[in-house]
Amino acid sequence: MKAQIQTEIKQLSDKLDALNHKEPELLASGDSEKLAELLKEKDKLQAEIERLRAVREETLSKEAKNLTKSPFSRAITKKEQANMGALKKSVRGLIVVHPMTALGREMGLKEMTGFAREKF
């Protein structure tokens, strides 16, 4: 679902960019009807993009809350990062969050962190 929202935001942003490139041509030609239609379409696209971004933020917030409720979390060491497959096999239900992902930025992480139900 997150990827679907992200691709939809990208498509709408591309359409908005295309409309922004058409606007100077319409201003130069003086066609007020087409310009008004273009501006109305731009407003619709901007509103939809904002709505989708809010949905994405809400989804991330829910996921962040669920992860912070995990009974155990700690930073993943460089050695563990090198052999992530073995770590995930040894700890069932381990969720690793990187600080550069959207979720990691929202949670304010400074280093790669693992969340699990049991101590690891």
Key structural traits:
single chain; 3-stranded antiparallel sheet; mainly alpha
Topology:
Blueprint: H1 2-29, H2 32-68, E1 72-75, H3 78-82, H4 84-90, E2 95-97, H5 102-107, E3 113-116
Antiparallel strand pairs: 1-3, 2-3
Helix pairs in contact: 1-2
Description:
The chain has helices at 2-29, 32-68, 78-82, 84-90, 102-107; strands spanning 72-75, 95-97, 113-116. The protein has 120 residues and is mainly alpha-helical. Helix 1 runs antiparallel to helix 2. 69% of the residues lie in helices and 9% in strands. It is elongated. The mean pLDDT is 90. The relative contact order is 0.13. The protein starts with a helix and ends with a strand.
With strands numbered from the N-terminus, the spatial order across the biggest sheet is 1-3-2
The rounded distance between the terminal residues' Cα atoms is 30 Å
Low-confidence segments, given as residue ranges, are none
Assess the beta-strand content as a share of residues. Answer: 5-15%
Number of distinct helices: 5
Multimer state? single chain
> What is the tally of beta strands?
3
Instruction: Choose one word for the global shape.
Output: elongated
Rg estimate, integer Å: 22 Å
Please provide the ordered H/E string of secondary-structure elements.
HHEHHEHE
Which bin fits the share of residues in helices? 55-70%
Q: Specify the structural class.
A: mainly alpha
Q: Tell me about the largest β-sheet.
A: 3 strands, antiparallel
Q: Quote the average pLDDT.
A: 90
Describe the structure concisely.
This protein is mostly helical. The chain has five helices and three strands.
